[in-house]
Protein: Rhomboid family intramembrane serine protease
Amino acid sequence: MESESTESARPTEPARPTEPAVTTCYRHPKVESHVRCTRCDRYICPDCMREAAVGHQCVECVKEGARSIRQARTAFGGRISTVPVVTYLLIALNVLAYVGEVVRPAIVDRFEMLGAALTGPDGGHYVWQAQYSYDFHPEGVVDGEWYRMLTGAFLHLPPTEGTFGILHIVMNMVSLWNLGRVVEAQLGRIRFVTLYLLSALGGSVLVLVIAPYTPTLGASGAIFGLGAAYYVMARRLGADMSAVNRFMAGLLLWLLVSAGLTSWQGHLGGLLAGGVVTLAYAYAPRDRRALVQAAACAALLALLVITAVGRVSELTSGAA
Structure:
């Protein structure tokens, strides 16, 4: 009879409780975290948590989600913005330029809009002639100073000169403040600044065509362009036109009344350019709106440049 061998039973040690692994934030490895992002499942610390519809998300997932959401647009394709940054910036630039004029008056002669003139040996300014003696020098756009067509729109009459003096910049900046905030809110920043600059350029081109020998300055051309934009946008949006029509009638009346005191050519050029640009903004087909709007602005810019170059060619050749 075989005997069964039994091993002596060894005492077993009690199982030690396993310590939980320490989890840390994926962006801040030294910070302990026990919350996961509901989107990517990574651990996040309180500094990296962002409230979500369910739970919390990390910073990167929130940014990625924002990119995938379609941004709201205005009826003209611009991004919705509650702060008229461009309007503020334009006013600031005009005011800074005005301060520069007061400190250094020579800025006006150097940067105002001037199509064609002559500088004499005595430093004086003389009426343009295509044929001039060697001791005279051309100045203005005919001498390649094309920048004047935009810089003149940021200058205004010095405090003690002209009919209006300091009221020139005050009236223009008040108008820019009132119109700019409305137009920029509807167009968005990029479209608004494009409208403003093309309107200013349109005013300078008409001055160059009709009154090339007369120095002009002021933001009025660009502001008249904003006025035209305000009218076109109101019609496109189906607004109550009674107040808008009164505004437009007042704008046109000022264009006529001020013709003997200001550059009506700059006002009219800005009005026409602003109207053309805003018509393109307002009535471009929705499915290819951005492309049509950009093409219309580029076409207007090309037309203005060609017109200006042709007029300068006429002046230098003595045709006008």
The first helix runs from residue 59 to 68. The two ends are 139 Å apart (CA to CA).
